[in-house]
Amino acid sequence: MTPFGERIRAIRRQRGIMQRDMARALGVSPAYLSALEHGRRGAVSWAMVQKIIGFFNVIWDEAEELQRLALQSDPRVTIDTAGLSPKATELANLLADRIADLPEERIAQMMELIGNPSDR
C-alpha cells in the first residue's frame, strides 16, 4: 500500500463511501480504485488527484496533504545515480535489494535520518 492509497482508503471508509460508488463518481473502474488504494498502480496523475480532492470536497491543508502523498506514492521508484558517487550508487542498490526485509521501525529511523520532505 502507498501513503496516498492508504489515505484515500481511510477517508473513504471514514465517510462510509463504498469503493464502487467512489469509482463511479471518478469515472474509473472499482478494480482501478482498489489497485490505487493497495499500491498496485503506478504514480497517480495530477488530474486524478484533483478529481479525488474534489470528490472528497477537501480544501487547504487536507488537499495539500493528498497532493504531497500522491507525489510520494509511486510504488515503482527508479533512482538515477548517474553522475553521483560510487557510494551513492551502492546505497541505491542496497536499498532496492533489501527494502522488503526492513522492519517498519528501521524504515522510520531511515526516514528521520534523511529528512521527511514535508519538514522542508
How would you sum up the major sheet?
none
Question: If helices are DSSP runs of H or I spanning 4 or more residues, what is the number of helices?
Answer: 7
| Shape annotation | elongated
Overall average pLDDT: 92
Going by CATH, the architecture of the largest domain would be: Orthogonal Bundle
Number of strands: 0
- In the CATH hierarchy, what is the superfamily of the largest domain? lambda repressor-like DNA-binding domains
- Quaternary status of these chains? single chain
Q: Give helix and strand order, one letter per element, not per position.
A: HHHHHHH
Class computed from helices, strands and strand pairing: mainly alpha
What share of residues is helical?
A: 55-70%
Beta-strand percentage range: under 5%
The CATH topology of the largest domain, please?
Answer: 434 Repressor (Amino-terminal Domain)
Q: Can you offer a commentary on this structure?
A:
- With 120 residues, this protein is mainly alpha-helical.
- The protein has 2 domains: 3-71, lambda repressor-like DNA-binding domains (434 Repressor (Amino-terminal Domain), Orthogonal Bundle), CATH 1.10.260; 86-119.
- The chain is built from 7 helices and no strands.
- It has helices at 3-14, 19-26, 30-38, 46-56, 60-71, 86-98, 104-114.
- α2 crosses α3 (30-38).
- The longest helix is centred in the last third of the chain and has 13 residues, at 86-98.
- The protein is elongated, with a radius of gyration of 17 Å.
- The model has no long low-confidence stretch (mean pLDDT 92).
